[in-house]
Every structure is written in C-alpha cells, then in structure tokens.
Description:
The protein has 303 residues and is an alpha+beta fold. The chain has a domain at 23-88 and 97-224. It is built from 12 helices and 11 strands. The chain has helices at 23-31, 38-52, 60-67, 99-109, 120-125, 144-148, 157-170, 182-186, 208-215, 218-221, 242-246, 270-274; strands at 79-83, 113-116, 137-139, 152-154, 173-178, 197-202, 224-226, 229-233, 252-254, 259-261, 280-284. Strands 4-2-3-6-5-1-7 form a 7-stranded mixed beta sheet, with helices on both faces. It has a two-stranded antiparallel ribbon with strand order 8-11. A two-stranded antiparallel sheet has the order 9-10. It starts with 22 loop residues before the first helix and ends in a 19-residue tail after the last strand.
Amino acid sequence: MNLKINKFNPGTQFKPKGKGLGIENGIKRIIAVRPFTWKAYSKIFKLIIGGSKYTGYPVIGSIYKFIMMFSPEKKRFTQGVVVNLNIDLTEKGQSAVLPVDMMKKSVREASYLASLNSCICRTNKKCKEYPIDFGCIFVGEGAKSLVGNGIARRITADEAESRIDKAASLGLVGQCLWVEIEQYLWGVKNEHMEKFLEFCFCCPCCCTALKVTRNSTRDIRSRFKSLGWMAEVNDRCIDCGKCIEVCPQHAMKSDGVKVSADEQCFGCGLCKNACTFSAIEIRLKKEMKDDIKDYFTGLNLEL
C-alpha cells in the first residue's frame, strides 16, 4: 500500500521580530540555559521526548505541537536536514559532493562559530557510549547569545572542521537544525532568528531530535529531510527487521521478503549501521543543492 508522503511547506515566509522595546529579548536572557541550570534544563528533554509519543492524539497532541511551536503548521518553521558524515561511495565513478564537505563549507563561510561545552541530550541520558562533552556547533550571529550565557565558546573554522571530522570518526549522525522553540532555550535574540543554524552530532541512544522525529506524526517528521541521500537495500536482506527498529522516520518497510526505504528516508545511515548482513548502502538519489541554507524552506538564512 502506498502512503501519501507529507511535504513540509509553511506556506509563508518567516518574518523575524525586531528589537522593539527589548522586552522579549530580556525574557529570553532571563530564561535561557546557563551553566548552573544546564542539568536541570536537560531534564526537560525527557518531557519533550515523552510528549512526542502523543502527537497523534486529538487534544494532547495539538497542545504538544502548539507548545513546541510545530503549529499552526503553516506559520511555524522548525525544520532540519540530515548530514550523514560517513557516506561510503561504493559505486565506481560516482561523483558527488559529500555531505560532510557541505557542512564544512558552511563553517568556513560562517560569520561566527560557537561550540557548546557539552551535549544537552547526552547529559540528559548520562550517555555511556559517546562523549558527553562533545557538543553541537552553532553557526551565525545568533551563536553569540550562547557564548554570552556561558554555555559555549567561540571557535575558529579550523576547530569546527576538526570537530566535524571527530563526529564522523565517532560514528555520529550530523543534523543541521533550525528549531523555533530553542530561541528561548539558548536565548537567541529576535533580530538574530534568521542568523543561526545548529549543527548537531547525534547518537541514536540519546538524540532528542531523532527520538521526537521517530515518535511523531508525519506532519512533524516531514519537517526533517535528506540532502538527497537515501537508503538502498540489496539482495543480501533477510528481512530481519533491525533496520525497521532503528529508523527514526519509519521509512523502512517490509513486503514479507525484504525491506525497502520509502520517500520519507532522510539517509541518516542508522539502518546501515544496524544491518549485520551488509544489505544496506546510502546512495545519492536526488541532486544535491549548492548550500545547506538552500534546504530550509521559508527562511532567509544569513550565516
């Protein structure tokens, strides 16, 4: 049975608020996470993950989507793109810009770069598999707020590239995220709302974004996309179901004989890592765009 795949389309263009009287920016400064509230704020992520399981319910789901700024659907702009840092071009002669290179291009061209002192998701889960002190990179003028709040430090483009390489060596999944509700978590100023992106290095055991995506209804999942890469299953597949279990998009489907990926796949590579029969490769299925910013709908990003 073919399922209709939702396509995220906010239907309008994001309009950043100005400084105004500075009241909203002042509120953000007060409630934004600081070093002494870091662990307390990390607990909120448990609630975010737990609440995402109820997005399909009529009342509680609507409340969750409103609080998390996923709705009204046409007026909210939270979205992201997955950057698989470990693409293996197995087809001889295949030529493509690697996702990791596109991420590096963004940090080289950025006006400002900051690295979180730790990963708030891994702090929450007390991760044993991956380093807790390996945090996200924030790109653009909006990152200045995180440095000012004492939870991040400014880094150079060379440092950022080294961190991207380390994330790849650790087997983490890259994500470029613009999450509207996080302006209050990180204290991003109104006038900087189109001047930041979050480059996350995500582990499957702890990542809030991956878990929310997996738990949620398709209208939320459709906000997160691939750079153009998707999973492809070969004849080694024995339909064991491991890839179905780990897929955060519910994109892996079985026909009773073997598994295949539908259009919702965003090429994160978790299925490939879970497969013990080398039955899955991550292939380029759509032509990649020139810049990561080009993947964000309704946003005029200036990084």
